[in-house]
Amino acid sequence: MNTNNKLFTWAYLAFSFLLFSCNSDTDFDDNAGVSNSETISILKVSAEGTSSFVVENICRVLEATSPLTADEIEFLYGVREDEKMARDLNIVFSSLYPATLPFINISLAEATHIATLEKLFDYYEIDYPALSSPGVFTDEKRQSRYNELVAEGNSLVNAYKVIALLEEENIITYNHILESISNPNIKIIVSNLLRSSRNHLRSIVRQINALGEVYMPMLLDDISYQDIITSQPEKGNKYQQKGKQEKNTNSGKGNQQQSRKGSKYKAGINYNTL
To answer: CA torsion sign, 72 to 40 to 11 to 119?
Structure first.
């Protein structure tokens, strides 16, 4: 087993105990839609600014909605692949620069992001393909971009800049999506992915500065960038529980029909129709 696969296996084992299925015969209260008064967090932030989802809490905060549209399903598939790319790049860089902790810490955080998206699929009973091996992507464009970014990380500072660029891209994308998204469950997940990207950008920029370098934003305007990096880490909101247990599905909730299952995976993301 090569170094990258060893690191991936370790990362997977470190969070796999959290990955309970949302599907269960033992569900929330029979009175669907009646909330528990207790509020809980779904995002936690480490001392160095790494943002991980509290995966076991995800099902507790989701609410009954109409089934996801084809565009919403496709969007979530694409986000999962993008989170995989971020995770895989951090794994590679952690093996290239083993004396540094941020890469492995962010890779572990990205793994919880992937697990959270899969929780959402489970909630809506949507079939999804297993992720491909680390560094392998079914979409040729993503594969080509991944290869290019690995090559660009040919020094420690350049590797940090690669990750910073990915976080900039995520910030812009998630801000755009939140302007038009209507599904409340997707909104909760995306808003916390956005917080995570801002936290990770802050963390990476600190590492670049510690090396005596200056990171110049590639995509964000200077005002937005300065506002992010001069702000404190974001821990996210607390959400009201929708029931007493961590296991839940959208089936039969709020008089909604059972969600249709997704049957085909494509790599594209239609941001304009969500």
So the answer is: negative
For residue 43, give the H/E element and its range. Answer: strand 43-45
User: Could you tell me the residue ranges of all domains in the chain?
Assistant: 3-268
Q: Give the containing element (helix H, strand E) for 239.
A: strand 238-240
Query: Residue 194 to residues 19, 24, 153: CA-CA distances in angstroms?
Result: 22, 30, 24
**Alpha-carbon span 165 to 158, nearest angstrom:** 10
| pLDDT given for residue 6 in this prediction | 52
Alpha helices in the chain, H assignment, sequence order: 3-16, 58-61, 70-96, 102-123, 140-152, 156-178, 184-210, 222-229
Contact of 88 with 135, CB cutoff 8 Å? yes
Q: In angstroms, how far is CA 43 from the centroid of its own chain?
A: 11
What is the Cα–Cα distance from 21 to 68, expressed in whole angstroms?
Answer: 19
Which ranges of the chain have pLDDT less than 50?
1, 3-5, 7-21, 23-34, 246, 254-273
DSSP 8-state symbol, 215: P
**Dihedral, 131, 120, 104, 2 alpha carbons, nearest 10:** -20
CATH architecture of 3-268: Up-down Bundle (1.20)
Q: What is the spatial distance between Cα 9 and Cα 3, in angstroms, rounded to a whole number?
A: 10
CB atoms within 10 A of CB 134: 20
From residue 62, give the alpha-carbon distance in Å to each of 32, 123, 237.
11, 8, 14
In the three-class reduction of DSSP (H, G, I as helix; E, B as strand; rest coil), residue 168 is classed as helix
